[in-house]
């Protein structure tokens, strides 16, 4: 099922080019965010990234709606994007708020109990909460668009979808991680090739190892200075390309997997019997 969904996702990316717009828009805003961050313009960087995150639900909804209707035309894409924008956005806001509250409720007792070790424990707790929410809520947008569900109904459907076939869903997640690693390693190779003349002397001289690690802002400034203007642009470009490639694939793969699971469950739920000639009669 996972492999079949993978192949279908690749076919959808070819059949419906507008799915790529989600990755392109988010990739551009994320790349600009990285560029502005490394250039010291942190005030504008956050606003550009926020703009991208607010635009993303429209393109996700448009992509999922087009896949649902098997029509990749611009008219259908725009219609579905406008129709389901808040169905995708609002559950994400609820998840963000719930994750923050959960992390706070868990981190406070840990800080009291562990004292000096509370910072490391809080980081692990935050990561665990985020991964748990992502595990069970990953399909909420697909459920919201395909089944036209509200905020909490889509979250509930996503959790039920994961739990009913947990092993296959974990394999699906593993395939996504593998695809992301493949794109990531390719991006690292490209980034290294673009900046080899600048990075090789620094690595040989040991300047990279001497960077101040106690202050994140200082590390960022030193790293940007080592890269130079061209290196900063190259870093932002590679980062944008990774997102532009992976996000559309993730959307198409998720939609294909959700649809295939739904088709299997619908077939299994039919009640009937075969006659002596092997013909199926539905009750």
TrEMBL record:
<keyword id="KW-0812">Transmembrane</keyword>
<keyword id="KW-1133">Transmembrane helix</keyword>
<keyword id="KW-0472">Membrane</keyword>
<feature type="transmembrane region" description="Helical">
    <location>
        <begin position="88"/>
        <end position="115"/>
    </location>
</feature>
<feature type="transmembrane region" description="Helical">
    <location>
        <begin position="173"/>
        <end position="196"/>
    </location>
</feature>
<protein>
    <recommendedName>
        <fullName>DUF4013 domain-containing protein</fullName>
    </recommendedName>
</protein>
<feature type="transmembrane region" description="Helical">
    <location>
        <begin position="48"/>
        <end position="67"/>
    </location>
</feature>
<feature type="transmembrane region" description="Helical">
    <location>
        <begin position="121"/>
        <end position="140"/>
    </location>
</feature>
<feature type="transmembrane region" description="Helical">
    <location>
        <begin position="12"/>
        <end position="36"/>
    </location>
</feature>
<feature type="transmembrane region" description="Helical">
    <location>
        <begin position="233"/>
        <end position="253"/>
    </location>
</feature>
